[in-house]
Amino acid sequence: MSQIDNLALLTDLYEFSMSAGFQKALSQNEEGVFDVFYRSVPDKGSFVILAGIEQALQAIQDFSFSAEDLDYLRSLDLYDESFLEFLMNFENKCTIWAVQEGTPIFPREPFMTIKGPLAQAQLYETMLLNIINHQSLIATKARRITASAEGRPVMEFGARRAQGPSSAVLGARAAIIGGAKSTSNVLAAKKFNIPVTGTMAHSWIEAFDSELEAFRTWADIYPTHCSLLVDTYDILKSGLPNAITVFQELKAKGYHNFGIRIDSGDITALSCSCRQMLDQAGFPDVKITVSNSLNEHIITSLLREGAQIDAFGVGEELITSSSSPVLSGVYKLAAVVKNGDLIPKIKMSASRGKLTLPGLKQVYRLYNEETNQAFADLIALQDETLMDAMQVIKADPLAIQPNFYLDNFRAVPLLTPALDQQDLQVPAADVFQIQAFSQEKLSELPKETQRLLNPDEFPVYITPQLYALQQAVIAKHSRF
């Protein structure tokens, strides 16, 4: 597994205050069950690509406090020595279930469940949300961008626009999970075994007396993979003619792997003119890469206009998900365990849309027995047995038509054991293995749910037993 720093202090202060309160007021055997889920999809899509699970689990395994950390907490004059001793001897006692990384997930369904001592499980909230919200957001944006490219490779170019080094490195990882083929970020490439790509900046060309001299010098240094940036001065009058001259010289020496990059101007018109000029010069295999503030909508428009593009370099729009920069994942208490009895808990709120699901649960993906296509997800209590045919209820508490009947389906559980105290239950996976798994799971979803604009809803249901439990807990708290 890749290494990250210990993140025990990446925690909102109230998490420490609640943990200290639990440690003081409750029995050490009292446990909590927390669900991690989200309510709305970025960019008005229908699903999120789950990413960051590996780093989240590792962060829990690494969760510990140094003497310096404890001295800082002591200096706040908020916590007594018994709590600081609890932190000093911290060792994860929680059991965690998680959906496999790369899976498309839908609103309101738990994609991670944490069960363990309340004083421990409460401390993980901020850290887990920070890791998973970020990577899932970027993986989801990358899925949209790579889908718009219609099979053409997308290179992640965003390190300089990311909100800090960690966002650049882990964002590149998430971009690969979402479908990107490479990154310009050398640290991310090394850390996660990602192909690293890049050409040159305009400063290279500007540093020489002429554009042709700059291109020739580059070709002398990198003859086996010569890709030239052609828009420093004038693409059609200068940049591309000079590039063709250099390609001809390299070809005469036996080299053949050439490319150009366009970073400005009317991409459609320029790419078409460049393609025509390259073909006429005898270079039909020269790859045309474009960059410059691209996103899924611009890429879709370029390809519909007939732009001649072989690859895309996408930076800030991908690495920041700038059109929809927040995934509002939440961490909610669903039950407590006292003396071995599981007691369901709920958040009701003044807004019905924020109503939570109580109890310890499982999420199933439902497949049509005849077509093997996924058609819905079903949230059930962990210990209940599904019927072959059953009435179900929409998980969305605002649904206008809440009741549905299901039959002829195969149910596949999504939440699987991930971490049992310090025992990791899932093997580490290469990031491209996760990407391949994600694309396999995407292929199982209806195409209508994958549209970039106005996608169809993929329904998420709950079982009658879970619904009855939810209504019973609501009724209990409504009496107060």
TrEMBL record:
Pfam family, one: NAPRTase_N
Metabolic or biological pathway, per its Swiss-Prot or TrEMBL entry: Cofactor biosynthesis; NAD(+) biosynthesis; nicotinate D-ribonucleotide from nicotinate: step 1/1
Record's catalysed reaction(s): 5-phospho-alpha-D-ribose 1-diphosphate + nicotinate + ATP + H2O = nicotinate beta-D-ribonucleotide + ADP + phosphate + diphosphate
Maturation and modification: Transiently phosphorylated on a His residue during the reaction cycle. Phosphorylation strongly increases the affinity for substrates and increases the rate of nicotinate D-ribonucleotide production. Dephosphorylation regenerates the low-affinity form of the enzyme, leading to product release.
Domain Nicotinate/nicotinamide phosphoribosyltransferase, residue spans: 154-343
EC numbers, comma separated: 6.3.4.21
Nicotinate phosphoribosyltransferase N-terminal domain ranges (all copies): 9-133
Top enzyme class: ligase
Signal peptide (from-to): none
Nicotinate phosphoribosyltransferase C-terminal domain ranges (all copies): 361-469
Record key words, sorted: Glycosyltransferase, Ligase, Phosphoprotein, Pyridine nucleotide biosynthesis, Transferase
GO BP, sorted A to Z: NAD+ biosynthetic process via the salvage pathway
Record flagged with keyword Hydrolase: no
Molecular function per GO: nicotinamide phosphoribosyltransferase activity; nicotinate phosphoribosyltransferase activity
One Gene Ontology cellular component: cytosol
Role summary: Catalyzes the first step in the biosynthesis of NAD from nicotinic acid, the ATP-dependent synthesis of beta-nicotinate D-ribonucleotide from nicotinate and 5-phospho-D-ribose 1-phosphate.
NCBIfam families given in the database record: NAPRTase_put, PRK09243.1-2, PRK12484.1
PANTHER family: NICOTINATE PHOSPHORIBOSYLTRANSFERASE
UniProt record similarity statement: Belongs to the NAPRTase family.
The name this protein goes by in its record: Nicotinate phosphoribosyltransferase
Source organism (scientific name): Ligilactobacillus ceti DSM 22408
